Known about the structure:
By secondary structure, the protein is α/β, with parallel strands linked by helices.
Amino acid sequence: MKTFSRDLAKALARASRAFPSVVLTGPRRAGKTYLLRKAFPRAAYRLLEDPDTLARVRADPRGFLDELRPPVILDEIQNAPELLPYIRTRIDAHPRQCGRWLITGSQDFALMQGVTESMSGRAAVFQLLPLSAHEIGSWDLLKGGFPEVWQRPRAAQDWFRSYLQTYLERDVRAVTAVRDLGTFRTFLALLASRNGQMLNKTDMAAPLGVSVPTLTQWISVLETTGLVLIVRPFYENFGKRLVKTPRVYLADTGLLCHLLGLSTHEELERSPFIGSVFEAFLALEIVKEQINRGAAREIYFFRDEQGLEVDFVVPKRGEVHFIEAKWSKTVTPRDARAVETLLAVSRSKTARGFVVHRGGTSMQTLVPGVKAQSIEQFVGV
């Protein structure tokens, strides 16, 4: 079975030499367990979803930890958050011993609440998303980035269906009390159809028959469990009145296509959603590159009330990149107009512009300051 090297491994190794604990969060099936076990092969391993293990933890958490010989991987810690105060005590007793507690969790909200309360300053926290195109060495909008889909591509649709069912039954109900899972599933499909659009909660709540506060809670669940990416507006003062509503993207294009009912490349090519799927892919690749090198997640979009709009604004190593996504093999200076206009009014002396497209055109300057770049060049495959 095909395996993948993860770019985040370097940042994890670096952190394990500086912190007593390393915490790895992220959506289910992104590859957290595989990454930690490969990066730290000598570490002991305990799965905190195992009923026998959980019974031992709840009966005697101190005794459970006393039996371990760190370094140890504690997998799915959200099932046993009561362990965190005891781990903190052990860390405080030996604060200079680094890389002893390697912890994973799938539900960011529950896990991070425990980390904040119990292990502040004692743990380096990272997030692992599904595979990036750089890690795969290729890209496919229908497959997305979950490792198991790339390992068993013929079973992709069955995998996505099963993933959604598991997500609804386990993660959603564990984080919040959703009474009607059928309506929540309809909500996911509606959200997929509005991928990349402004998040108009009132407009979305009406066809679902739910209140805006309920919809707000549902979106929070999706964000905290890693199923959506919220992209907020860029607020640099350009002397313009700016739109303040965020955009929302499904956090995996394979899952997005499944929710849209797209299962073949022919269907995807003909779909009116192809542009927004490509835009989501580009947004996710930007975020994956950032967090895989241990940097902060920073991605925005720009839109003013006069209609000037640029898909993404990305601070990167002292520069600001204005990026437009185009699902086309042919790009022209016309495609660079919005980026060119924004560059002209930007106060940043280090701003650069790009039009990222599906390939077929080598790197070239469309207008001063704005280059065309194929998606392969952009993601490094």
